[in-house]
Write a structure and sequence with these properties.
By secondary structure, the protein is of the alpha/beta class. It has a single domain, classed as Alpha-Beta Barrel (TIM Barrel). The protein is built from 17 helices and 9 strands. Helix 4 runs parallel beside helix 8, helix 8 runs parallel beside helix 11 and helix 15 crosses helix 17. Bound molecules: coproporphyrinogen III.
């Protein structure tokens, strides 16, 4: 009988003695083998669009750490690029885009052309699935419409997304049209990753925290609900993880409104509060502070113990609350994984002994 990856069982609601583990941005600049391939590719987007190289870096953290899941090496902004927007990455400065400023700009996005432009991503997914052991799952992903829209309108990263929020007030029809295009494009992008071999999908709403209460419901929960419902109808076996970063008090509302199967928690979520607010059946992922990856092994172990104790009796995927920093110490990643895999009683004894 083929073995079902542990993380898939967890995301379907089954608890286990030790949580499955993967690490947000696990293929990245803290790994020397990533840096070598990154240099070979030259440009970041070239790496994303070269299937052999993208597949190679996707598999690197699995080979090194034996994690429970691989996440396809790509970026949330390939969807903007796939829609025909100009996107590039300035070394050391992050993403840059030619900003959308009007309904005309939004209407000129090339929705039908996306599939062909992003075909190298789907090819990379199938190459990874072919090489990945059967007991490891492959995660596909997209950015949530709100987060991707902030990059498309601001022309890059921004602290407070004020131009995007202002655009939604000044051009409500154009903003709605952009969100609709992104919902539709995200659904197609996820379906094509699933067709190529992705078994789980995650929707990253990294900037959900800059929305008002009303905006959160309208631009975070609702568009994600449309995406999650479409994926459930198309591929009921593929769990959808939602990551509404910065949701704070909106988290319970998000879980009931967004139709996701599981929720990824950011670093600010208080686990006692989360437990009191969310049904015990909702699988939860994340929350560990990425800065722990620059601390020491005792602190990593204690943090893993606390989160595992708090999540006892619930389906739980161990992960960081945001991406691993490029300065991360590989020894801390190893400490994290060993604490994840230890029986809880042994971990408790170690945590109390120190
Ligand atoms: O987790 C993985 O290993 C898969 C790969 C992955 C990347 N980006 C690769 C990447 C994933 C899942 C993402 C998602 C992503 N991209 C998000 C959502 C998650 C989050 O962090 O909140 C966002 C907001 C982006 C947009 C983006 N891409 C930014 C802001 C940056 C620059 C920031 C930085 O760390 O430099 C990127 C570039 C990027 N995406 C890198 C990687 C490995 C670094 C680029 C490089 O190697 O030069």
């Amino acid at each position: 009988m083929p073995s079902v990856p542990k993380i898939l069982r967890t995301l379907r609601g089954v608890q286990s003695d030790t949580p499955p583990i993967w690490i947000m941005r696990q293929a990245g600049r803290y790994l020397p083998e990533y840096l070598a391939v990154r240099q070979q590719a030259g440009d970041f987007l070239t790496l994303c669009y070269t299937p052999d190289l993208a597949a190679e870096v996707t598999l690197q953290p699995i080979d090194r750490f034996d994690l429970d899941a691989a996440i396809i090496f790509s970026d949330i902004l390939v969807v903007s690029h796939g829609l025909g927007q100009k996107v590039w990455f300035e070394a050391g400065e992050g993403p840059r885009l030619e900003p959308l400023t009007s309904m005309e700009d939004i209407k000129s996005l090339d929705r039908p052309g996306m599939k062909d432009r992003l075909s190298p991503v789907y090819e990379a997914v199938s190459k990874v699935r072919a090489k990945l052991p059967e007991d490891k799952a492959l995660i596909g992903f997209c950015g949530a419409p709100w987060t991707v829209a902030t990059y498309m309108i601001e022309g890059g990263g921004s602290k407070d997304h004020v131009m995007t929020r202002a655009f939604a007030y000044r051009h409500p029809d154009a903003f709605s049209a952009l969100i609709d295009i992104l919902v539709d494009a995200s659904i197609e992008h996820l379906k094509l990753q699933i067709a190529a071999g992705a078994q789980i999908v995650q929707v990253f709403d990294s900037w959900a925290g800059s929305l008002t209460a009303e905006g959160f419901s309208r631009w975070c929960s609702e568009p994600i609900a449309r995406i999650a419902s479409a994926i459930r109808a198309h591929a009921p076996d593929v769990p959808v993880i939602g990551f509404p970063r910065g949701a704070g008090a909106h988290l319970p509302g998000f879980v009931s409104a967004s139709m996701v199967d599981a929720v990824a928690l950011d670093t600010s979520a208080d686990l006692d509060w989360v437990r009191s607010q969310l049904p015990a059946t909702v699988p939860m992922q994340g929350n560990l502070d990425p800065a722990l990856m620059l601390s020491d092994a005792d602190q990593v172990r204690d943090a893993v113990f606390k989160i595992r104790r708090a999540m006892r009796g619930r389906p739980h995927v161990l992960n960081l609350g945001h991406g691993i920093p490029k300065e991360a110490d590989i020894a801390m990643v190893e400490a994290l994984i060993s604490a994840a895999r230890m029986p809880l009683g042994d971990l408790m004894a170690l945590a109390h002994a120190s």
